[in-house]
Amino acid sequence: CFFVAEDDGAIVGHINGCMTDFDTCRDELYHDAGLHREEARITVFGLVVDPQRQHQGIGAALVRHFPEVARQRGKEDVVLTCKERLIPFYSSLASGCWGAPTASTASLLV
Question: In 3D, which of 65, 64, 68 has the Cα closest to residue 94?
């Protein structure tokens, strides 16, 4: 899955991921497309917003769009793993529960 945010034809952000049966975003998903399956959930690989356009709601809109598409495609949830410093941003958008954080990352269902 890959979605972009545009403003007057210019790309100002994007979010991408894959469909999987894993309940966490595992490193091997980045390297082995054979693990991308039409299963119960979608996982987020990355969210990027043009630095000059950050703090304008673009990232939040992209994150909120992902579960909408997941539900339309019959998926149970979206799994996102993030750096600990980003937990406040993503938790403000989460409608599900957090997984157990490690020293540097946490997973959530959005």
Answer: 64
- Successive 10-residue mean pLDDT values, the chain, 110 residues: 93 86 64 65 85 95 85 78 78 59 50
Tell me the C-alpha distance between 2 and 24, whole Å.
Answer: 19
User: Rounded to whole angstroms, how far apart are CA atoms 100 and 90?
Assistant: 15
**Can you say whether the dihedral through the CA atoms of 49, 14, 64, 23 is positive or negative?**
negative
CA distances, 50 to each of 13, 47, 54, 57, 61 (Å): 6, 10, 6, 12, 14
Residue 39 identity (one-letter amino acid): E
Alpha-carbon distance of 4 to 10, in angstroms, equals 10
